[in-house]
Amino acid sequence: MNPFSPVPPSWTESAVHAHQFDCPRCGAAVNKAKSVWINRRSPVYTEAHRRKWQEFYHCGECETAWWAWSSDRPPTEWSGAKEDENPNPFGI
Ligand SMILES: [Zn+2]
């Protein structure tokens, strides 16, 4: 699996927008996802001129596909790293 593939995986077609950074159906955390796809081809610029993009997750617990904005991801140990220097914050 390549989370940065230019071609969206088929499971992303049914993804629902999650307003919290976990599965909207069963509440499983991001690290329970069995697949990840990050849509870095079409970033959106926020009010603060920071880029954000859609991150798609395929829940490994209930098979729900969901997505959320990268800017909504909770702070991690990588917070503060420049995005361009850290294109793969999940270490996948
Ligand atoms: Zn789930």
Notable characteristics:
4-stranded mixed beta sheet, binds zinc ion
Which secondary structure elements does this structure contain, and how are they paired or packed?
Layout: E1 16-17, E2 33-45, E3 51-59, E4 65-69
Parallel strand pairs: 1-4
Antiparallel strand pairs: 2-3, 3-4
The structure holds zinc ion.
Describe it for me?
With 92 residues, the chain is mostly beta strands. It has one domain (10-76). Strands 1-4-3-2 form a four-stranded mixed sheet, with no helix packed on it. The protein is 0% helix and 32% strand. A hairpin with a 5-residue loop joins strand 3 (51-59) and strand 4. The protein has no helices and four strands. It is globular, with a radius of gyration of 13 Å. Bound molecules: zinc ion. Zinc ion binds at residues 23, 25-26, 28, 59, 61-62, 64.
Can I get a quick summary?
This protein is an all-beta fold and 92 residues long.
